[in-house]
Design goal:
Layout lengths: L9 E6 L3 E5 L2 E4 L5 H12 L3 E6 L11 E4 L3 H11 L5 E4 L6 E3 L18 E3 L3 H6 L6 E8 L3 H11 L4 E6 H4 L4 E2 L1 E5 L2 E4 L3 E2 H15 L4
Helix pairs in contact: 1-6
The structure holds cytidine-5'-monophosphate.
Length: 216
C-alpha cells in the first residue's frame, strides 16, 4: 500500500533546457535530458498530485496523468509558470534555464561571411527566485547541479533564492545518466540520499517535500 503523500495537492514544475533563439534557425541552449524532471513529475502523479509540467524541448513522452505545457525560451517558460502557479501548493524548478539570451533574435537567417560575429547576450529572469518571492508562494524546491563544492553552492542557492528546499547533485553523478545521487538541503540541514535509479530518487524527493508541506 502506497500512501498518497500529495493527494489534493497541485504541483507546478519546470523541466528540460530552454532554447534562446539567435535567428530563425539557430539558438543557444543548455544540455538537459529532462529525465530527472519527468521522473519527478511521474512520482508526483503517483503520489496523488495534480501536475503541470512546464517543459522546454525534450524528447520524452508526457508522464501519464500530468499536464504538459510546452515552451521554448526562458521568457516563455516564465510566462507559463506565472500563469500556472496561482493556487498551486508546490513549485519545483528542475529546468536548466539558460542564464542569458541573445538581446535580439534576428528576424531572418544570419548569412555567413568571413568576418567575426558577436552576439550580445542579456540575462534571463530567474523563474524560481521570482516564484519564491510571490506574496503567497507555493512551497518552492530548487535544483543545484554542480561540478564541485556541492554543499556550499546548493545551500547558498537555497538561501539566496529563499527556498525551503534544494536538491543538490554533483553533475558527474547525474546528468544524462539513469542513476542519480543527490543531497537534500532544507532548514534542518543536509540529507544525503543513496545513489539510486532516477525514479527511486524522485520518490525519495517527493516523500521529503511532502513531509515539509503545511497541512491542507
Ligand atoms: O542559480 P542556478 O541556475 O544554478 O539555480 C538552479 C535552480 O534555479 C534550478 O532549480 C533552476 O530550475 C532554477 N532557475 C530558474 N530560472 C533561472 C535559473 C535557474 O528557475 N533563470
Amino acid at each position: 500500500f502506497q500512501p498518497k503523500l500529495l493527494a489534493g495537492r497541485r504541483v507546478v514544475m519546470t523541466a528540460g533546457p530552454t532554447f534562446e533563439p539567435i535567428d530563425p534557425v539557430r539558438g543557444i541552449t543548455n544540455s538537459s535530458s529532462g529525465k530527472m524532471a519527468y521522473g519527478l513529475a511521474r512520482a508526483c502523479v503517483q503520489a496523488g498530485a495534480e501536475v503541470v509540467l512546464v517543459s522546454g524541448p525534450v524528447a520524452l513522452p508526457v508522464p501519464m496523468g500530468a499536464h504538459r505545457v510546452s515552451v521554448r525560451s526562458a521568457l516563455e517558460m516564465r510566462e507559463a509558470v506565472l500563469a500556472a502557479v496561482p493556487g498551486s501548493d508546490v513549485f519545483i524548478g528542475v529546468a536548466a534555464v539558460a542564464d542569458y539570451r541573445p538581446a535580439a533574435a534576428a528576424e531572418h537567417k544570419i548569412k555567413k561571411s568571413g568576418a567575426e560575429l558577436a552576439i550580445t547576450l542579456t540575462p534571463n529572469p530567474d523563474i524560481l527566485a521570482e516564484v519564491a518571492a510571490l506574496p503567497n508562494p507555493p512551497f518552492c524546491v530548487g535544483f543545484a547541479a554542480e561540478s564541485r563544492n556541492l554543499d556550499e553552492y546548493a545551500e547558498g542557492k537555497r538561501k539566496a533564492k529563499k527556498l525551503p528546499m534544494v536538491v543538490g547533485n554533483l553533475v558527474q553523478d547525474g546528468l544524462g545518466g539513469d542513476d542519480n545521487q543527490v543531497v537534500l538541503f532544507d532548514e534542518a540541514g543536509r540529507h544525503p540520499l543513496p545513489k539510486a535509479p532516477k525514479p527511486e530518487v524522485a520518490r525519495s524527493i517527493v516523500a521529503h517535500l511532502a513531509a515539509l508541506l503545511p497541512r491542507n
